[in-house]
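Long-time lurker. I teach an intro course on protein structure, and each term I like to show students one example going from raw sequence to a predicted 3D structure in token notation. This year I'd like something fresh instead of my usual example. Would anyone be willing to generate the tokens for the chain below so I can use it in lecture? Attribution to the forum is fine with me.
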Amino acid sequence: MKTAVILCAGEGKRFWPYNEVRNKVAIPIMNRPNVRRLAESLHQVGVQRLIVVVGAFESSVRAALHGIELPIAFIRQNPPTGTANALLSALPLIGEEPFLVAYGDIATPAGTLYRLIETFQRTGAVAAVVAQPYLPEHDPRDWLGAYVREGQLQRVEGHSADTTHRLGGLYAFSPHIGPALNAHPGLMTSVPVGGMPPVEAELAQILQILLDQGQDIPCVEPDSFLVDIDKPWHIWEANARWLDYEASQLETDRIGKEAQIDETAEIHGKLVVEEGATIGKRVVIQGNAFIGREARILNGAILKGNMAVGARTRISDYCLISGTTVIGNGCIVGHDAEMDGVMLDGSFLFHYCEIMGVVGQRVDIGAATVCGTLRFDDGDTIHTVRGRREHPEFGANGTYFGDFSRTGVNVITMPGVKIGAYSCVGAGIVVYEDIPSRKLVLLKQELVYRDWGPERYGW
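-- Reply from a regular --
Happy to contribute to a lecture. Here you go:
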């Protein structure tokens, strides 16, 4: 299949606090924008040109795809009116050939695309879709759902408890779906009674129109994993899934030119070390690690678990990086700091921090900032996203620091809180609830003054 359409126009309102400076498709996954990873996977499976539909934060999408080895045609959809309308605007550029459609916020290996293309071409169907079976911890009401039987799509229903799979945001279509697109009613009518769909032309409704016309639509399951990056904790999940997947593919070390590994370093795992990187004295690495160009791991730093460290990042002075963690480009993790999760580019952790969650771009974490990670009831935090209560399946108790935010010394965050972009949290504050973007929060304390001196001691 020569052509793929990538949909990148949405505003991503449920993605707060990471939707204030970028389109969510441009969020880094293992230190590469997700939409770029997706475009590279499409190229890998044989796609020769891209049509990218942009809208909100268009510049971030263009920047993420800059220099990729595929011709790209950009189409602007402003304001966004739904994914079906986005595809309809791209149809004149596609021609009379089958094509792929990918939502730009889908993170999955290229193997998923291979499965989709093979099934579509083998069956000769008018459409084929990727659909992911629900796990026991999934709530079908969180997703655009599908009822699948013996590999065939039977019904599409939005946010219904009565579905077996969730749609994966990846489709293969015949060029003859134009009439079905034109027949879209402008909102998702295939919903449970009382489901209250927004007035938005969702592409999934096209599948139901095709089913109602008697068309067969085969389904394939993802290869290894698929994450729909829709809410802030999905950043952490997508990074962890990609990192574990890449680590599982390593068979031998790959050491770049002029990379230095000190003889005192303890290495227990496979290494990918890019050009000019340094692993210094007394460093301990227990897991597989991807070390970026000119990164420096120095002076007793401890890395436990699969790890990715971006270019020009410094990790040093007996800090502890644990879990499945991705550190961005140009970051600093300093003396005795601890990190578990994701740090985006240019963020700093200094002096006795203990951070778990997602740290946005260019965030300055003050000394001794600590994230609470366990609740007294040993449960997971319930989040509120645009007024709806959410039960994250991954990362519920992390803290989510928005881009360009700052904390003062001795800040404590309770499990699951979010700090908005461009906000500052003053010294000594305990953060119990989400802090909006563009706010300075200071602790107001009452001081009591009394006379005191030597006479109090009998002089």
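Some talking points for your students: The longest helix spans residues 233-248. The CA atoms of residues 338 and 354 lie 5 Å apart.
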